[in-house]
UniProtKB/TrEMBL annotation:
Name of the protein: Hopanoid C-3 methylase HpnR
Keyword annotations from UniProtKB, A to Z: Iron, Iron-sulfur, Metal-binding, Methyltransferase, S-adenosyl-L-methionine, Transferase
SUPFAM superfamilies to which the protein is assigned, alphabetical: Cobalamin (vitamin B12)-binding domain, Radical SAM enzymes
Gene Ontology cellular-component terms listed: cytosol
Biological process terms in GO annotation: methylation
GO MF annotation list: cobalamin binding; iron-sulfur cluster binding; metal ion binding; methyltransferase activity
Pfam families per record: B12-binding (PF02310), Radical_SAM (PF04055)
Annotated CDD domains: Radical_SAM
Top-rank taxon, per record: Bacteria
Transmembrane regions listed in the UniProt entry: none
Residue ranges occupied by any B12-binding domain in the UniProt entry: 8-141
InterPro entries to which the protein is assigned, alphabetical: Aldolase_TIM, BchE-like, Cobalamin-bd, Cobalamin-bd_sf, Elp3/MiaA/NifB-like_rSAM, HpnR_B12_rSAM, Methyltransferase_Class_B, rSAM
Gene3D superfamilies named among the record's database cross-references: Aldolase class I (3.20.20.70), Cobalamin-binding domain (3.40.50.280)
Length: 497
């Protein structure tokens, strides 16, 4: 069969700092291709709707799959589905991905027949079976399937993540993927899942708190096949198990692979496994994203982060000592007042690290979705991108956005200060010489994208599709939140806590 896979366009945040290849969709493409199907991928993060329309008419797909990792992309995905059905009513249209797995029935209903099915959970095991069923019948037996007729069997989980290999060769604009000055940049996955259970996060509920590791040989072979000089490691928390990080490092050393790396991890993991991070700096580890979330104990408790402010500050010292550039994430509580924003600005200016702010947002699939007592002020999917306030703000909304953007701008200016500007010019010169302009564009776009008037105006757009209302749930049995309900491997979680 001919399968066309689509990734929707980039959200606000990605217009500035980063744009990365859709690795999950590439893996789904790999699985479908391994099963003998002809596959094309259109990534709207890096190309326009015209290319999608052109590919749709010339390729004439039997099936169209849209990736919905992000809630904010749901209205766009429904529009794509409607357009596809208008052009070819016989094309089978389906959605899959992280976020849509938690609201599958609602999105199906909202599409009013434009979407034939939603696949919940991991796409690799399901999509070959789905395509066979579209051809031969038996749709209701596909694992993870939800159709207007109801749910089929529960989603199936891959036993290991070594295969299928992502179909990177299908991406037509690879040079457009970047993260900060790592331009161009590819992505890779060493592990899948997270054994922690932070209340604002759905990574653990999606995978039922399980945790799987790629074999070092497969990770090494995949890295060797990557053309780009820079690689983003997509793992939720990198190097939880130090022996795994060391084994992959040994494989890369053996193969003499050296690239520049960006990864995400937790403060306690960095403190506990310092040697493995140190070894990776010799392989090219340059940047690290630390989800600190809050600078005080109260905030950390609220998000059930299970680290202390002291851990966080010690982790920053370790990263500085290792020469790793750190980006810190802090969660902005809509309850913040002007004084709180001022304190955060003070903090951000006092530390040498890059500070990112994301607005606390209850998402389906997270615990706070069910327990957050403040009422949602909007159910417009497009605002659920952690850059907008969707619960009541203490400050008037316009003042909240003014403070938020002011804080982001102060932080941004800090990084474009003299020392950084000189560094940036050096990087910029090198990138431009290689024809890479993503990083350069980013430097000049900040004020256009981060703009309080624009953020406020986003709340006034007419709303066609709304998120379902949260059901208040006493979280006694947390497995009720899981997409993949395989019993959680408690040993992993216990060993890492
Ligand atoms: C890497 C990552 C990113 C990267 C890359 C994004 C990209 N282009 O793909 C970057 C850093 C750019 C990023 C940015 C953001 N991210 Co992000 N990201 C992740 C992360 C950590 C891993 C995703 C990944 O690559 N996993 C590995 C691949 C193999 O898995 P996968 O993509 O999930 O795909 C599998 C399934 O979902 C499914 N699938 C996927 N697509 C499809 C399509 C079909 C048709 C089918 C059937 C199945 C299917 O099958 C795949 C294989 O099993 C996840 C957390 C997580 N654990 O999932 C958060 C996560 C998806 N991100 C999140 C958020 C909030 C964001 C931002 C909005 C953050 C911000 N500050 O603004 C931005 C917006 C990005 C955008 N679209 O513009 C949230 C989503 C929340 C939500 N409910 O909407 C998550 C869940 C993190 C969290 N715990 O809250 N992100
Ligand atoms: S450690 Fe990170 S990925 Fe894991 S549950 Fe907490 S926020 Fe989510």
């Amino acid at each position: 069969m001919r399968l066309l896979l689509v990734h929707p366009s980039a959200l606000m945040y990605s217009e500035i700092f980063l744009r990365l290849e859709p690795l999950g969709l590439e893996r789904v493409a790999g699985a479908a291709r391994d099963a003998g199907h002809e596959v094309r991928v259109v990534d709207l993060q890096v190309t326009g709707e015209k290319e999608l329309a052109r590919t749709f008419s010339s390729f004439r797909p039997d099936a169209l799959g849209v990736s919905l990792n992000y809630l904010a992309n749901i209205p766009e995905a429904i529009a794509i589905a409607r357009a596809a059905k208008r052009t070819d009513p016989g094309c089978f249209v389906f959605f899959g991905g992280h976020s849509v797995s938690f609201v599958a029935e609602d999105v199906l209903a909202q599409s009013e027949g434009a979407v034939d099915a939603v696949v919940r959970g991991e796409g690799e095991p399901a999509v070959p079976l789905l395509l066979a069923a579209v051809r031969d019948g038996g749709l209701e037996t596909v694992p993870g399937i939800v159709t207007p007729a109801g749910r089929g069997p529960g989603p199936r989980m891959l036993h290991g993540i070594d295969s299928p290999v992502p179909a990177r060769d299908l991406m037509r604009h690879r040079r457009k993927y970047f993260i900060g000055e790592l331009d161009p940049c590819a992505s890779i996955e060493f592990t899948r899942g997270c054994p922690w259970d932070c209340s604002f996060c759905s990574a653990w509920t999606f995978y039922g708190r399980s945790y799987r590791k790629a074999s070092p040989e497969a990770a090494g072979a995949e890295m060797a096949s990557i053309q780009e000089p820079n690689v983003f490691i997509v793992d939720d928390v990198a190097f939880i198990r130090p022996e795994h990080g060391h084994a992959i490092a040994a494989e890369l050393e053996r193969r003499r692979i050296r690239k520049q790396y960006y990864l995400e991890t937790r403060s306690d993991v960095l403190l506990r496994n310092e040697e493995v991070f140190q070894r990776w700096t010799r392989l090219g580890l340059q940047y690290m994203f630390l989800g600190m979330e809050a600078i005080d104990a109260e905030g950390l408790d609220l998000y059930r982060k299970r680290v202390t402010p002291d851990d966080n500050f010690r982790a920053l010292e370790v990263a500085r000592r290792l020469g790793i550039n750190v980006a810190i994430n802090l969660i902005v509580d809509p309850a913040w007042d002007e004084e709180r924003f001022r304190l955060v600005r003070e903090f951000a200016l006092a530390v040498p690290e890059i500070v990112h702010l994301t607005v606390m947002t209850p998402y389906p699939g997270t615990e706070i979705w069910h327990t957050e007592s403040r009422k949602l002020t909007t159910r417009d999917y497009r605002l659920f991108d952690i850059q907008h306030a969707v619960v009541p703000t203490t400050l008037p909304l316009d003042v909240f956005y003014r403070e938020l953007v002011r804080t982001q701008a102060v932080i941004n200016r800090k990084h474009l200060g003299l020392r950084t500007a000189l560094g940036a010019l050096r990087v910029l010169g090198g990138n431009l010489a290689r024809g890479q302009t993503n990083f350069a564009r980013m430097l000049w776009k900040f004020n256009r994208v981060y703009n309080p008037a624009r953020q406020l105006a986003d709340h006034r757009r007419p709303v066609r599709y709304e998120l379902p209302l949260p059901q208040h749930l006493e979280i006694g049995n947390r497995q009720e939140l899981y997409v993949h309900s395989r019993p959680a491997p408690r040993r992993e979680a216990e060993q890492t806590e």
